[in-house]
Design the sequence.
């Protein structure tokens, strides 16, 4: 299964390189006809397409970033622990808010460090565990809430985490009468996610 997956990734990366090469050749051919008035804008489009395709290739080579978001005390950290199979990976508690920083979980610190650097050292913490099976392929991010008394400090870092995620899990407490408000509040932040990349719990 894993080796099939690796073969598929290698094939996809090979095709991506092929597309990039075709576009570069086209760009060089356009250089040769620089008196043609549409050539310059087509050349720019080729360069833009090469950049976009390179970004796709980078995504193949890194782990999936899976982020949990939601209101205070809805159970984000509890769910993260359940997904990873380790009880105390993220601190859970009655004190609200419990999670006050972005917390990046990974098998080894290096993957997490790269991601955490984007948040600045006072907003992100890194935790590693080789025991969590899911972390082999995924970087898990636990976020602070966006509705407790610390929300003004926390909303910008949650937004940053969302911007860097491939997939979001939005956690709501079904018994909380303000659940609808929380859903409406999060809606604009999560717009770029749909289908399988947005899960509501
Ligand atoms: N009944 C019930 N309680 C839960 C569930 N998930 C979490 N809890 C409890 O709810 C409380 C809050 O859980 P946390 O996982 O700390 O919630 P959180 O969303 O991470 O909270 P903050 O970090 O403060 O934003 C804890 O006491 C959990 O034991 C659940 O599915 N059902
Ligand atoms: Mg928490």
Sequence:
């Amino acid at each position: 299964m894993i080796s099939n997956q690796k073969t598929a990734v290698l094939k996809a990366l090979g095709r991506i390189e092929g597309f990039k090469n075709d576009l570069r050749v086209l760009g060089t051919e356009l250089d040769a006809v620089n008196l043609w008035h549409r050539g310059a804008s087509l050349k720019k489009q080729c360069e833009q397409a090469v950049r976009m395709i390179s970004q796709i290739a980078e995504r193949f080579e890194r782990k999936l970033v899976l982020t949990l978001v939601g209101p205070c005390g809805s159970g984000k950290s509890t769910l993260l622990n359940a997904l990873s199979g380790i009880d105390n990976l993220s601190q859970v508690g009655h004190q609200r808010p419990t999670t006050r920083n972005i917390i990046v979980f990974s098998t080894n610190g290096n993957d997490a460090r790269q991601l955490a650097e984007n948040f600045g050292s006072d907003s992100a913490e890194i935790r590693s565990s080789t025991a969590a099976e899911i972390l082999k392929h995924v970087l898990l991010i636990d976020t602070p809430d966006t509705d407790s008394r610390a929300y003004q400090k926390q909303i910008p870092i949650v937004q940053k985490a969302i911007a860097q995620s491939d997939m979001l899990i939005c956690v709501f407490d079904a018994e909380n009468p303000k659940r609808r408000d929380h859903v409406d509040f999060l809606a604009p932040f999560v717009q770029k996610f749909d289908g399988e990349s947005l899960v509501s719990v």
Summary: The radius of gyration is 21 Å. The longest helix spans residues 2-32. The CA atoms of residues 3 and 143 lie 34 Å apart.
